[in-house]
Write a structure and sequence with these properties.
Layout lengths: L1 H29 L18 H8 L5 E7 L8 H20 L4 E6 L6 H8 L4 E4 L4 E11 L4 E4 L10 H13 L5 E6 L6 E3 L4 E3 L3 H9 L1 E4 L13 E5 L6 H12 L3 E5 L15 H5 L9 H6 L1 E3 L3 E5 L3 E4 L8 E10 L15 E5 L4 E3 L5 E8 L4 E5 H5 L6 H4 L9 E8 L26 E6 L11 E6 L2 E6 L3 H13 L2 H5 L11 H38 L10 H69 L1
Length: 624
């Protein structure tokens, strides 16, 4: 009877566990659907708040097609790991979109219609293996208006920017209207008649690019009004602006408007009036600033001095037949001077500047000053008047003393800021006056150079069969376009952080390996020292001999050589022992990790559950 009761009890327990399992499965599928826990060190599977807001506020449904060559990538485990992580991120995007984002996976098998589609969309194929099969890993996005966005190849080295790139595509496809960009310029960016050459002048390449991407609305620099429907305001060489216009810029920024400014202590493209007038040419290269607005935003800008950079200086030609000379005022900032945590500047290789100024944060400012591009540490200020009348760039180097500091050439200004005007100028209403920024703060990007926009610093034009072909040799245009695109995006898009890499280093293992390599180096150095000492002794023995049979070793030499051979074998054994100890330490570390994951963690969970159950029972007993 007792055995039968035990069997019935065991069967009841099994039935109860089965019912509990089914119940939990149903509840989790109904009530806990989508609930996930990201326990990775850098939250690799957690979307930023900005991304979530973009997905929640999609106005237009978006279709994403992820092309990935499954079979071709079989022998590339690391690449497949990255592709799996990217696919899981896209799944998370789709899950959080409320059905407005539809994701479809496509395997472009070689010689299939899907491979033809990938090629037609402009996806980039990489040949893999001896057969030359093409590996595709790209993304195509569309909306109901047949707009198209393409990422030709999702490169693993750009992994930390993937979330931003995906959010940018979705944001542009779900809000397809063209952005309106206002332009206030003290320089002639547009096409027109050039009095100096008596010919028609082409528009600057940067202006042509902006015209293709955005709806450009030109605003007179000497006007008093600022349109109220701008998505972005761009100011190039803002000089001699009216107080009313400056005030409207101030109020636009405080209300959350986006601003991109190019100032300069020495704008070389500013001809100062009629180029045919000698006095105008002498006064060319005027300075520009935003004056009181910069003070309100907590930014210092010296309009009388430029930056010279000894490390980044470029070579220029001063006369035909003479060797080029390094010009401290014309320099190229490489990747070391770029902010690698900002998506607008992180992937750039070189940006060229000429007679650029610098920006600096003011003390006790309420804004956040974020450098995007900086000079090298071998830089220092130079009076702008020296460059204005400079005949030989080599003269700048003679008395140049680097300060050891980096100077900010491009900066982003965000956060809370007051108005530069306690009250509006005359004839303007006081009703709409804002004394300080709104909750989201201001969003301004400042350049301390206007010459960065000139064609001569970043593009080369060639005539090919009657067509002008433009090739860029620097990233000036890319940086400006990235920042404009970033500012034109929503505040959510701007705030999306760069992600850490999904492949994390084994830091403890790396430390063990480095320690072992250090031991190897010490042992090898000891071996080389003993080898040199032995060779020296052998040479002395040979020199001391009196006979003519120099090729025959004496007994002493033979003993010395044998001693060296024995010692060499011993040191080789020591090297093998060090390698063995390294492998043993790494294997022991792996065993400890397996023990923790497989044995210790479940035991701790069981103990914690038993302790919790014990406390619950004790509480019921006390209450009962």
């Amino acid at each position: 009877m007792e055995q039968r009761n035990r069997s019935a009890f065991s069967a009841g327990i099994l039935v109860l566990l089965a019912i509990l399992f089914v119940t939990l499965t149903i509840l989790s599928s109904v009530f806990l659907k989508g609930l996930r826990f990201d326990l990775t060190e850098n939250n690799l599977y957690t979307l930023s708040d900005g991304t979530l807001n973009i997905l929640e506020n999609m106005d237009e449904p978006v279709n994403l097609y992820l092309y990935f060559s499954e079979d071709v990538s079989r022998e590339l485990p690391q690449f497949r790991s990255y592709a799996r992580w990217a696919g899981e991120m896209l799944d998370e995007f789709a899950d959080r979109s409320g059905g407005k984002l539809r994701l479809k996976r496509v395997d472009p098998v070689p010689f299939s219609p899907q491979e033809d589609e990938a090629a037609q969309y402009g996806l980039q194929g990489v040949p893999v293996g001896t057969a030359g099969d093409m590996l595709y890993f790209g993304l195509v996005g569309t909306n109901s208006l047949d707009d198209l966005q393409v990422m030709p190849f999702l490169q693993p080295e750009k992994e930390k920017f993937l979330e931003y790139d995906l959010a940018k595509i979705i944001s542009s496809l779900s809000h397809p209207e063209q952005k309106k960009v206002g332009l206030i310029s003290g320089l002639d960016l547009q096409p027109g008649f050039d009095p100096a050459t008596q010919t028609m002048r082409e528009a600057w390449v940067i202006y042509q690019q902006f015209s293709q991407l955005f709806d450009i609305q030109d605003i007179a620099a000497d006007g008093d009004e600022l349109p109220g429907d701008l998505d972005l305001l761009v100011m190039v060489h803002p000089k001699d602006l009216s107080e009313k216009l400056l005030y409207q810029v101030d109020q636009m920024v405080l209300r959350g408007g986006r601003l991109l400014v190019f100032m300069d202590p020495l704008a070389e493209a500013d001809m100062g009036g009629d180029p045919s007038d000698p006095m105008a040419r002498m006064n060319a290269g005027g300075s520009s600033s935003l004056g009181p607005l910069l003070d309100a935003w907590g930014v210092a800008f010296d309009s009388d001095r430029v930056i010279g950079d000894l490390a980044y200086a470029l070579q220029v030609s001063i006369a035909q037949g003479q060797p080029p000379v390094r010009h401290l005022g014309i320099f190229s900032v490489d990747a070391d001077g770029m902010n690698d945590s900002d998506v607008a500047s992180a992937d750039l290789q070189s940006v060229n500047f000429s007679s650029a100024g610098w920006l600096a944060p003011l003390e006790d400012s309420s804004t956040v000053f974020e450098p995007l591009v900086e000079s090298s540490e071998n830089a220092a200020p130079i009076d702008a008047v020296r460059l204005r009348f400079l005949s030989n760039p080599a003269d700048l180097i003679k008395d140049f003393q680097p300060t050891g500091d980096r100077f900010t050439l491009v900066a982003r200004i965000t956060g809370e800021a007051p108005s530069a005007y306690p009250e509006p100028p005359a004839d303007l209403p006081l009703v709409s006056h804002m004394a300080e920024s709104g909750d989201k703060g201001i969003n301004v990007v400042l350049f301390a150079d206007t010459d960065i926009l000139t064609d001569r610093l970043w593009v080369q034009k060639q005539n090919f069969l009657g067509q002008v072909i433009t090739n860029s040799f620097a990233d000036n245009g890319t940086l400006v376009a990235n920042l404009a695109d970033q500012l034109l995006g929503s505040s959510d898009l701007i705030g999306i952080r760069t992600r850490a890499n999904s492949v994390q280093p084994f830091s403890v293992v790396d430390e063990l390996r480095l320690s072992a390599e250090a031991q190897f180096r010490d042992t090898e150095e000891r071996l080389q020292a003993e080898l040199q000492e032995t060779e020296r002794k052998l040479t002395e023995m040979q020199s001391a001999r009196q006979d003519n049979e120099l090729t025959v070793l004496t007994s002493g030499q033979e003993q010395e050589v044998q001693r060296f051979i024995d010692r060499k074998l011993q040191i080789r054994a020591e090297l093998r022992q060090v390698q063995h100890d390294l492998s043993r330490d790494i294997e022991a570390l792996g065993m400890r990790l397996k023990f923790i994951n497989i044995v210790l963690v479940p035991i701790l969970i069981i103990v914690a559950a038993a302790w919790f159950r014990h406390r619950q029972r004790r509480r019921y007993e006390r209450e009962g």
